[in-house]
TrEMBL record:
This is AB hydrolase-1 domain-containing protein. GO terms for molecular function: hydrolase activity. The keyword Hydrolase applies. Residues 107-369 form the AB hydrolase-1 domain. The lineage of its organism: Eukaryota, Viridiplantae, Streptophyta, Embryophyta, Tracheophyta. Keywords: Hydrolase. It comes from Prunus persica (Peach).
């Protein structure tokens, strides 16, 4: 599917981490809990970056100054829900000793109808292998725990990227790596485009199984995200009595069982815990997601690929079994951009992930880990 994330479920409960790393979890709920006990009584007391705070000593290299001038930024939970997975050697936080050097940070973005949990297992593995790094996982607007945070439209690739830029500014992070799968890949490119001038150098952008321009969804026998969104819109949005019934409906409509089972991970129990009469409702904003997918199809970001800012390295990863999503024209333009970027002290590079379909981090996590690891050395 051209814009659907992997088969890892979008569960919303907490879970223990035993991989030698630490994780912060922020959700849009009144009672916020963290995986780390900070010295500060308020783990979100990070200050304001708006007007009248020029002497705060905070300046994010990633985000355009116009964001800081737009007024007081909201708390992180009012921007996007996120997890911060930190390697065991990371001692830094945005609310403790500012004299500590900021650790290198990577941002991971999911695809349409996905959530930040899609990247959980993969980033915990990265944190174990690269203990000096930290990894920011977000629920994009209209998805997962961020669906309850009301966002102004239009719901586009550009506005989604701006959300993430605001979040990293609020957290006082300067990402060195941006990784986006499918729709998230275009979001990562849009982040680089919107913050190209003050972007920290060097920065690596990874676009996983997505092209900068025209979206070419699956052929016969493949799952089309647009069709899936359309079918989901005909189903009840609340008071769903059975996940199995939803799976059966989707399979009868021609979607694979794997996709159907993955989609229902977006259902959250609405009844009392332990109740035999528990029902489910969708955690996402399907209307907003439909608008986001249309933007994904219409957004053209070839300009930043063919004129990459100095110090920015854009990496495209094509799944071996996703040939129908990559036209010869796409490959030729990317290879031409490789040569041009090398002359401008920037970078464009093409990678192929063997033995993988579109869901690269589910189909071949070992191969993907090997390829991405070069960015964290």
């Amino acid at each position: 599917m051209a814009a659907i994330s992997n088969l890892a479920g979008c569960s919303h409960g907490g879970s223990s981490v035993n991989f030698g790393e630490r994780r912060l979890t922020f959700r849009p709920t009144p009672a916020l809990k963290t995986r780390i006990s900070w010295p500060s009584k308020n783990p979100l007391a990070v200050g304001h970056l708006g007007k009248g705070h020029k002497n705060s000593g905070v300046r994010m290299a990633l985000v355009d100054e116009k964001l800081a001038r737009s007024g007081d930024l909201p708390k992180p939970s009012d921007i996007l829900a996120f997890d911060l997975v930190q390697g065991a050697l990371v001692k830094w936080s945005s609310v403790t000793d500012r004299s500590l050097p900021e650790p290198p940070t990577a941002v991971f973005l999911h695809g349409i109808l996905g959530c930040r949990k899609n990247w959980g297992t993969f980033t915990r593995r990265l944190a174990q292998e690269f203990p000096t790094w930290q990894f920011l996982l977000v629920d994009l607007r209209c998805h997962g725990d961020s669906a309850s945070i009301k966002k102004r439209g239009p719901h586009t690739v550009s506005s989604t990227a701006l959300d993430v830029l605001k979040l990293v500014q609020q957290l006082r992070l300067t990402p060195r790596v941006l990784v986006g799968h499918s729709f998230g890949g275009k979001v990562a490119l849009s982040m680089a485009e919107q913050a190209a001038k003050p972007l920290a150098r060097p920065v690596r952008v990874w676009v996983l199984d997505a092209t900068p321009g025209k979206v070419r969804p699956g052929g016969d026998g493949e799952d089309h995200p647009e069709e899936l969104i359309s079918v989901l819109s005909t189903l009840p949005q609340e008071q769903i009595s059975s996940k199995r019934d939803v799976v059966d409906v989707l399979v009868r409509k021609g979607f694979s069982k794997d996709v159907a089972q993955w989609v229902v991970t977006n259902l959250r129990p609405t009844g009392p815990l332990g109740s035999s009469q528990s029902t489910f409702s969708w955690v996402f904003d399907l209307k907003g997601i439909s608008e986001m997918y249309r933007s994904y199809e219409e957004t053209n970001l070839w300009k930043i690929v063919e004129d990459v800012p100095r110090g920015v390295h854009v990496n495209f990863l094509k799944a071996e079994r996703s040939l129908h999503r990559w036209a010869l024209e796409d490959l030729q333009r990317i290879h031409a951009a490789e040569e041009l970027a090398a002359e401008e002290a920037a970078g464009v590079e093409m990678h192929v992930l063997e033995d993988a379909g579109h869901w690269v981090h589910a189909d071949n996590p070992d191969g993907l880990f090997k390829i991405l690891s070069s960015s964290f050395q």
